[in-house]
Batch of 2 targets.
Target 1
Amino acid sequence: MTTSFLTYLEAKRTVDDSALDRRVLEQFTNALSNRDGPVRLVELGVGVGAMLSRLIEWDVLPPRVSYRGVDIDSSCIVRARERVPKRLESAGYTVGAPRSVGNETVEDGVPKATSFVATWAPSSDDETATEIEITLEVADAFALEDDADAVIAAALLDIVDLESTLAAIESLLAPGGLCYAPITYDGSTAFTPRDSLDASIEAQYHHHMDEVRPAGGSRAGSALLESVADRPWSLLAAGSGDWVVSPVDGGYPHRERAVVSHVLETMADALAAVPSSDLPEESRLPAEKRRRWFERRHAELEAERLGYVAHNVDVVTRVP
Ligand SMILES: C[S@@+](CC[C@H](N)C(=O)[O-])C[C@H]1O[C@@H](n2cnc3c(N)ncnc32)[C@H](O)[C@@H]1O
């Protein structure tokens, strides 16, 4: 994966921080705290470990957790192995030395799985000691076995085949296990200032997600809600995890400009891969007009005046 993708994953952490539906997250963490004994979590598509660090920093996990974070992309796991310990140390955790789990390596000799323990010691009697064993692993979500109390899939279900991923998630869960799937894209990408070509650009972007990309879809969030309703799963909570990036006082907060820049690049690549003849008449756009739309958007980004809003769905469910 490119450096810019890793930069994007790191930069989107604060966008997700604001976006995550707190009621859905609270339902998830409350249900988790009712599980017996040390809690086993599996995160699919863990990226650079942003959700893992967040849940620990926000102190919403039970006191004893074993957390298995998996990503198919080894560069994400390498970056997560660097970043997560640093973040946890900044949050006051003592982080043990990492050790390889087994001897298997992937490309460039990167260990397939490494593990470390993060502990937090209370300073008063009314606080609880925390111990989290974290394993970061290069693996395909579809080739795993586990018996987890919960599976987390953040910003993943819109880029994979939904039905087979839900089946894989079910197979990873212990009876009564939870699935927390926040930031699942659902059919709306908007920019400010508005532009007369936006609707056509968005339609082409969605067409790429639905018809050209090998998996995923532009209405994955709604499809997820439908799919959960069709299964014997209980929906515990659903809400919106919308991304809103906007310049504040003439500049982007944190590193959020990189998020918008990456979205524009992704859209440009997507649109370039859609043959115009594939599109309904009303969405077709001469290449020159499309090029100028991107030029305008990049100029607005440079001038720190481009805003970006995307609609996502957050869901927490329980299997029987
Ligand atoms: C949009 S990113 C989201 C990363 C992270 N969950 C976050 O929200 O920051 C999707 C991640 O899923 C990973 N991924 C895609 N397909 C996968 C698969 N079959 N197994 C494991 N990871 C996968 C990608 O490598 C990428 O890191």
Target 2
Amino acid sequence: MGASRSELKSLRSTKYTSSARTEGGIERLRALGYRSGLRALDLADRALGRDRKMVPPRRYRRFIGNGDFTKVGTSITQYMRAELGLLPSHDVLDAGCGVGRIAVPLTSYLTEGSYLGFDIVPHAIDWCHSAITSRHPNFRFSHVDIKQEIYNPEGTLTSADFRFPADGQAFDMVALVGLISHLLPDEVDNYVAESARVLRPGGKCFATAYLVDDMVAERVREGRTAFTFTHSRGTHFIHSEQEPTYAIAYRLDHIQEVAARHGLRLEREPQLGTWSSSTARPASMDLLVLERA
Ligand SMILES: C[S@@+](CC[C@H](N)C(=O)[O-])C[C@H]1O[C@@H](n2cnc3c(N)ncnc32)[C@H](O)[C@@H]1O
């Protein structure tokens, strides 16, 4: 199958890899080889009938993180159902939905409700449209052309004043999975405000993040965490000065202060991932649940 125009455009412009890591010629070549390898594997999957309708090709899956697409998506949505009380009649907004890792397992559950996902990578949204919306019309996806150094360097909008493509109080749950760690403080402020705006009273905002308290700050300073955040900025810690949005950890008290300012409160103590207690990788992020007053 030929690549669509939007795929070609975004494959050309999207790095998905920190330029801090690909500065050297060898690293750039390695990244190029990796991408070509994934394309070859996708072709092989098709030729051998190993491709599955509701699983995106490998070259699209690579930018959403490690782990098995189906298993990770299923475990996240199990958590939303069992722990956060997500019901089949609920309306879910998924900001930074990627290639539908959360949407796919929800298609068999949100039978009366609805799902809206938006993302800044056009071919991810194209794939979600053709694979998911075509079979489940209550699942909708929207591409938003926000500029982001890693994922969409040629975008024209900004996260700090972006308005979610949704009416106020239209959703029971907002998911921000793998997103906060790519947002700068003024962008987090706006995304939390927008989450609060679109949530119904009592609705929940579910996020993954690298959360830092005093004890974790100590470990970060000593380099005893799975991901390194070498530059402290008071409210947050960044991995790379050259490319701050590659990975950002936030002080929990800062996130709580931002949330409170926008009418959200910590619904429960965050569930800690493994990234801050050990240097072992792969490592998981912390889970944060905020509730709309
Ligand atoms: C680590 S991936 C996680 C994707 C998805 N939430 C999942 O769990 O599979 C981060 C996603 O956030 C998207 N993203 C980054 N900055 C964004 C922004 N400002 N607004 C919306 N999406 C953004 C990226 O394009 C990418 O798809």
